[in-house]
Amino acid sequence: MTLQIELNGVNKYYGAFHALKDINLAIEEGTFVALVGPSGCGKSTLLRSLAGLEKISTGQMKIAGQRMNDVPPRKRDVAMVFQSYALYPHMTVEENLTYSLRIRGVKKAEARKAAQEVAATTGLSHLMKRYPRELSGGQRQRVAMSRAIIRHPKAFLFDEPLSNLDAALRVHMRKEIRALHDRLHATSVYVTHDQIEAMTMADHVVVMRDGVIEQQGRPLDLYDRPANRFVAGFIGSPAMNFIPGIVGEGGADVILDFGRTRARLALAVRLAPGLGVTVGIRPEHVRIVAAGQGAFDIPVGVVESTGSATYVASATQPELTVVETRRGDVKSGDVIGLAIDPKQLHLFDAETGNRIE
Ligand code: ATP
After folding, report:
1. SS3 of 205, please?
2. What positions does the domain ABC transporter occupy (predicted)?
3. Model ipTM?
4. Does residue 45's CB lie within 6 angstroms of at least one atom of ligand 1?
């Protein structure tokens, strides 16, 4: 496999502000990469740097083996798809599609043929004579993507392309984009703040915070083995529970601190007695059992049901949320037992937040 995108030691400063900190990334051709992280983490800056819309301060950036640091955007052979679609309002769909080819000197008939071919793959054939204002949000997004596809770029760069669409259409479009990617085998870099989008669409997820890559890897590897507390809390929905604890005298269990109450929980590993840890427990890895039958008992606070799932939150500080797919008869004020498999615990150093092996 050849590397399509390579970043080595990339830093970006806006004046004194350090927006990208020592970014290293190696993306193989044909990979769908998601850049994900909270607002302001630097994901758009990274994408815009790939597009050439921002100039990196130090480090090296290569696309298809070619150094790109000083190459202007239009010579990079990458196509960007924006959240705002950036369509030309006074042009029809067909004109929007053929425009980029026409300005590159492609003959009219040839450009129209290319537009028709792309429109057939993106389901726009019947809309070619319409203007952007006569299209739905999803259709406009498809025009924006078609306009990128028609150029056969070396990489597609998506900047939160679905954030203007309603929830149902977003779910539909994310499948469409992924299917399109599979058909075209193009390298795609996709910026989103939505971890579910990142998890479901990407082959490779890059989690960023404050200009730093916190972790990158295959989606389920990030879910199964988050490198630190931040990634653990960011990946997964509903979010992981975090309970402070101290490793017990024998090193084989942990005493969880629920404020007014404490609970002892067995560990699958041996740790230094007295070590301060943060115990991560995913809501889907806890089973509700009768009081006295689980690892420990806990009082029930709020119970919410969406129909398909029931969320049971403990009346403790911090709260521990359990999600169950079967409908139970648990209600606020009950005392329940919690069954927890020690192998499914995530243990983080209380000081650094880093995962403990
Ligand atoms: P969002 O999800 O809100 O779009 P993001 O992760 O894409 O966030 P960026 O737009 O990459 O974040 O911005 C990263 C940081 O760099 C932010 O703190 C932002 O304020 C800062 N920043 C971005 N552009 C500039 C600029 N032109 N001048 C100064 N600071 C900037």
Report:
1. strand
2. 5-235
3. 0.96
4. yes
